[in-house]
Prior knowledge:
Helix content is 33%, strand content 33%. It is of the alpha/beta class. The longest helix is centred in the N-terminal third of the chain and has 14 residues, at 14-27. It is elongated. The model has no long low-confidence stretch (mean pLDDT 84).
Amino acid sequence: MNQIISAVIIEDEEEAFTYLKATLEKHFCNINIIGSSNNAKNAIDILNNLNPELVFMDIELPDGNAFQILDAINNYDFEVIFVTAHSNYIEKAIAYYAFNFLTKPIEVKQLINIIKRYIHLKKRLFTKQKYILLKEFLTESKLLIQTGNEHIAININDIIKSEADGNYSHFTMADKSTYLASKSLKYYENLLLEKGFFRANRSTLVNIEHIRSIYKKQALILSNKEKVIVSIRNKSKLSEIINYLS
């Protein structure tokens, strides 16, 4: 069963509104029109209160335009399909992250294709709500890494070291598992240096909590018994590590 999609139509032309609503109801029984408006002022109130998933929005309205409406919305999470007879608005519509753009008069085939594309991509769209959930999931103790097409949250305390592998980074974990992340070591260095990590050399980032001993002030012995050489340029920072561990 198709999931219900809540939608709002912002359109000041009665004929255009009736045609769009009827076309949606005819071809997509899972789209529920929960509200509509024919002016900018009322549209702002409706969008703030109803929180739809999808909005069909005419760009030019009697008391304003679609861009003024979007600027007035409090952190909107919905996707926008602009509907207008003026193609010169396309660039600005793109700047406002429009999902798509319909030109008047609306062609049924084009509308159907756009809605089908929205339904297909719906689970992949990154909304503010998904961002909040992600932020709650990723606490100070976790790091999100991308391995191929998958994102994995790993415990920072369990990372023994991370090594550069070209434009990738190789993570060695306390449970002996390993991950090849598709971002550079420099990227992770910026995230991890403030979380107790030390750049031992050009290609290796080490978790200070997993340093078990320091050999002749030039090599680190890690919790998995691996040895990591400290580069000459980073030896000056090694004294700070020694003081931390002492």
